[in-house]
Write a structure and sequence with these properties.
By secondary structure, the chain is mainly alpha-helical. The protein has 15 helices and two strands.
Length: 314
């Protein structure tokens, strides 16, 4: 033992790159205790102090507090256990920081008022349970009385955001915006109206799965791609195909009333907030971005509103 080298604090500082002040501070707290003292009373350390100091520095760099570090180096608690607990704490901090960044980014981009910022912050901080309740309240308002129908139960699932446990910044931003959107009374009313319209189309024809928008898209997308003007004579056969297919879907005659009915459904669907909701939903759930239906809806609405288009003879 007596033949082992001894190091002063200055020696340790030179070997480890730490400051004398830091080593003395850690030594005073018993984390790196001296092996003995020299004739003048100065602290002296054995070679194991170098390895201990390296370990302490690493643990400090990882964010552990000194009390926990002392328990680790004294083997009072397993390092693996401490690492797991600290990793979980860091994960929580990261989630909080992502939420804060998302709110501040949204505030900067929108030029939000203090009141809007406060609302965004509250929405971002909601727990998973509270997020679920907020979404359920929104979807209940849309589908209440309708979701006993399996078709509506499925639609409801496709409209449900599922923010992952560790979302990225874009997902958090999308969640905040979507949560705000669910609180918009006009948007809620519009989505409810669409659900009721689809229910009316399915009345007595529950085997029908497709809605008016899907029927129109199938017929109109080729016309759009071909550059057909919705007000031109070339649009007439497209409109006729759309209304014929919609009439067969509803089990109704293709007449002026049916065309007004279809126009009403397309106008309800052509709400930019609905499309934005679906875009945000894709980001939150990690789904591929869907194609915008606005061009199809705009074309169809214009074509159905042109003179003579509602008389059932196009």
């Amino acid at each position: 033992m007596n033949g082992e080298p001894r190091y002063s604090i200055g020696d340790l500082a030179r070997r480890t790159g730490l400051t004398v002040k830091t080593i003395r501070f850690w030594s005073d707290r018993g984390i790196v205790p001296p092996t003995d003292r020299g004739p003048t009373g100065r602290r002296r350390y054995g070679i194991e102090a170098v390895a201990r100091l390296d370990l302490v520095r690493t643990l400090r760099d990882l964010g552990l507090d000194l009390a926990t570090i002392r328990r680790v180096v004294d083997r009072e608690v397993p390092l693996a256990e401490v690492a797991a607990a600290h990793a979980e704490a860091l994960a929580t901090q990261i989630r909080v920081l992502r939420l804060r960044r998302a709110v501040l980014t949204a505030v900067a981009r929108r030029g939000s008022t203090p009141e809007e910022m406060e609302l965004m912050h509250k929405l971002a901080k909601l727990s998973e349970d509270k997020r679920r309740r907020l979404v359920d309240d929104f979807l209940d308002a849309t589908f209440s009385g309708l979701d006993a129908d399996p078709a509506f139960a499925g639609i409801r699932r496709t409209l449900t955001p599922e923010l992952p446990e560790s979302p990225d910044v874009e997902q958090v931003e999308a969640w905040v915006e979507l949560a705000e959107l669910t609180q918009d009374p006009d948007f809620r009313a519009g989505l409810r109206r669409m659900a009721e319209q689809h229910a009316a189309d399915r009345l007595g024809r529950e085997s029908v799965r497709r809605d008016a928008v899907a029927v129109v898209r199938d017929q109109v997308e080729p016309a759009l791609a071909a550059g057909v003007d919705p007000l031109s004579p070339a649009a007439e056969p497209v409109v006729a195909a759309v209304t014929d297919r919609y009439a067969r879907l509803c089990g109704r005659p293709d007449d002026a009333e049916l065309r007004r009915r279809l126009l009403d459904r397309l106008a309800s669907a052509n709400d930019p907030r609905r499309e934005r909701y679906l875009q945000l939903l894709s980001v939150i759930n990690g789904w591929p971005a869907g194609e915008s239906l606005a061009p199809v809806l705009d074309w169809s609405i214009r074509a159905l509103r042109r003179p003579g288009a509602d008389d059932g003879r196009s």
